[in-house]
Specification:
This protein folds into two domains: 212 residues, Citrate Synthase, domain 1 (Orthogonal Bundle), CATH 1.10.580; 106 residues, Cytochrome P450-Terp, domain 2 (Cytochrome p450-Terp, domain 2, Orthogonal Bundle), CATH 1.10.230.10. The protein contains 18 helices and seven strands. The strands form three sheets. It has a three-stranded antiparallel β-sheet with strand order 5-6-7. The radius of gyration is 23 Å and the shape is globular. The protein is mainly alpha-helical. The protein binds coenzyme A. Coenzyme A (COA) binds next to loops.
C-alpha cells in the first residue's frame, strides 16, 4: 500500500501507512506537526491508535476477541486464569514447568505487609471497595522502594509482576472481610488463583464457584487499548512504577461507562424489578434523549456486533445458577430486556448489543459477591491485561512519555487587573 497524501493549505505531505497482522490500517502522523505545524484532534480517541501492540486482537464488526492469537471461546473452555495471564504477559502459552514456576511465584508474593492490612482496616467498613483496593495497591509501592525505579531490570520485572498479582487477590478479599468485621485471611499456595480468592473471601473453597470465577477472570483478562489499559500506559509512560500505574487503572475502571457498569446493571435490573418488572418502560427511558438514563451493560465503543464475552457469560449464567440452585428473578428481566432491545429500531440502528457487564453481575450475585464489589471482580480479572500492556510499553524501544496536544480556545493575552478593580 502506498503512502497516504494529505493537502494542507496548498502543501501536500505523505503519511506512511502502517498495516497490522490482521490487516487493520493506520496512518503514521508522528511527523505531521513537525512538517506542517498542524495536529490532529479526536475527542475520546475514537480514531486514534496509541501504540502498536501484539497482545490482543479485536474485530468489533465481527465480534472477535483473541489473546495472542488464541480465540476467547477456546481459552474460556480449555484454559485457566494463570495460564491466560502467563500467555498475555509473556506472549506464549507456558510449558507445565513454566506454569508451575509462575504459580509458585504468585503464591510466594500472596501476602501483604501488616501496614497495608492496617490501611485497609482503617477505611470505613462501608467504603466503596474500588477506593480501598486502588489505595492499597498504590500503598504497596512504599514497601518496595527497589521496585519504584524508573527503569526496571529483568529480575525486578520478574518480581513485581507476581507481586502485584498475588497481592491483588489478598487486598480484594481483605477489603470484603473488613466490611464483615473479619481480619485478613491467609493465602494458601495449594490452591489456584480463583480457589485461593474464594478461600480468602469465604474461608472455604467451592469448586463450582472457583471455576465460574476462573472463566470470568479469563473473559476479563485483556481488551487492548480500553480506558483503564490506556490509563495504565499513560501513567507508566512517565516511568511511574507498576503499583502506581495499576492503581490508576483501577480508578479508570471504576467509572460506570467502563467496568463500573457491572454494578450499575444489577442496580438497574433491581430498580426495574422494584418498579413492577416493566422493562419496556425502561427501554423507552433509554431511548429518550431528554432522559440521561442509558441501558447499562449495552453498547460498546469497539463491538458493533455481539460482544463474544457476553455470549459466553450468558450461557455460563444459566449453567451456574442451575448448578447452585439459585433462582434470581432479575435473570428473566435481563433476558426480556435483551430480547426487546435486539429487535428495537433504536438499538438495531446504533448497533447496540449486550456487553461483558450485562450478565456478569447476575453470576457474581449468585456466587455471594456483594454488588458494590463487582467492579473489583472485573479488576482482578483485568490485572494480567494491565500488566502485559505496561510490560510491552516499558520494553518498547519506541517508549515516549504520553503527552497529547490540544487546540487552545481560551482568552488571548490580557493584562492583570487588581482585585479592587474587578
Ligand atoms: C460503552 C459506551 C460508553 C460506548 O460509548 P461510545 O462509543 O462513545 O458511543 P456513544 O455514546 O457515542 O453512542 C452512540 C449512540 O448510541 C447511543 N447509546 C450508546 N449506548 C447506549 C445505551 N447503553 N443506552 C442507550 N443509548 C445508547 C448513544 O446515545 C448514541 O446515540 P446518538 O447517535 O443518537 O447520539 C456506551 O455504549 C454506554 O454508555 N453504554 C452503557 C455503559 C456500559 O455498559 N459500559 C460498559 C462498556 S463494556
Amino acid at each position: 500500500m502506498s503512502n497516504a497524501k494529505l493537502e494542507i493549505e496548498g502543501k501536500t505531505i505523505e503519511l506512511p501507512i502502517i498495516k497490522g497482522s490482521e490487516n487493520e490500517v493506520g496512518l503514521d502522523i508522528s511527523k505531521l506537526r513537525a512538517e506542517t505545524g498542524v495536529i490532529t484532534v479526536d475527542d475520546g480517541f475514537v480514531n486514534t491508535g496509541s501504540c502498536e501492540s501484539s497482545i490482543t486482537f479485536i474485530n468489533g464488526g465481527e465480534g472477535i476477541l483473541r489473546y495472542r492469537g488464541y480465540g476467547i471461546e477456546e481459552l474460556a473452555e480449555k484454559s485457566n486464569f494463570e495460564e491466560v495471564a502467563y500467555l498475555l504477559i509473556n506472549g506464549e502459552l507456558p510449558t507445565s514447568a513454566q506454569l508451575s514456576g509462575f504459580k509458585a511465584k504468585i503464591a510466594e508474593y500472596s501476602t501483604i505487609p501488616v501496614e497495608v492490612k492496617n490501611i485497609i482496616s482503617s477505611f470505613p467498613p462501608e467504603a466503596h471497595p474500588m477506593a480501598v483496593v486502588s489505595s492499597a495497591m498504590v500503598a504497596l509501592s512504599a514497601f518496595y522502594p527497589e521496585l519504584q525505579k524508573g527503569t526496571l531490570t529483568e529480575a525486578d520485572t520478574e518480581k513485581v509482576i507476581p507481586l502485584v498479582m498475588g497481592a491483588m487477590k489478598v487486598i480484594a478479599a481483605a477489603n470484603y472481610r473488613h466490611s464483615k468485621g473479619k481480619t485478613t485471611g491467609t493465602p494458601n499456595g495449594k490452591y489456584n488463583y480463583a480457589q485461593d480468592f474464594t478461600n480468602l473471601m469465604f474461608d472455604k473453597v467451592d469448586d463450582d464457584i472457583a471455576r465460574a470465577l476462573d472463566v470470568l477472570f479469563i473473559l476479563h483478562a485483556d481488551h487492548e487499548q480500553n480506558c483503564s489499559a490506556s490509563t495504565v500506559r499513560v501513567v507508566g509512560s512517565s516511568r511511574a512504577n507498576l503499583f502506581a500505574s495499576v492503581s490508576a487503572g483501577i480508578n479508570a475502571l471504576w467509572g460506570p461507562l467502563h467496568g463500573g457498569a457491572n454494578q450499575k446493571v444489577i442496580e438497574m435490573l433491581d430498580a426495574i424489578q422494584n418498579d413492577g418488572g416493566d422493562y419496556k418502560k425502561w427501554l423507552g427511558k433509554a431511548k429518550d434523549k431528554s432522559d440521561p438514563f442509558r441501558l447499562m451493560g449495552f453498547g460498546h465503543r469497539v463491538y458493533k456486533n455481539f460482544d463474544p464475552r457476553a455470549k459466553i457469560i450468558k450461557k455460563a449464567c444459566d449453567t451456574i445458577l442451575n448448578k447452585l440452585g439459585v433462582q434470581d428473578p432479575i435473570l428473566d428481566i435481563a433476558k426480556g430486556l435483551e430480547e426487546q432491545a435486539l429487535s428495537d429500531e433504536y438499538f438495531v440502528e446504533r448497533k447496540l448489543y449486550p456487553n461483558v457487564d450485562f450478565y456478569s453481575g447476575i453470576i457474581y450475585r449468585a456466587l455471594g459477591i456483594p454488588t458494590h464489589m463487582f467492579t473489583v471482580m472485573f479488576a482482578l480479572g483485568r490485572l494480567p491485561g494491565w500488566v502485559s500492556q505496561w510490560k510491552e510499553m516499558i520494553e518498547s524501544p519506541n517508549l515516549k512519555i504520553c503527552r497529547p496536544r490540544q487546540i487552545y480556545t481560551g482568552s488571548k493575552l490580557r493584562s492583570y487587573t487588581g482585585i479592587e478593580s474587578r
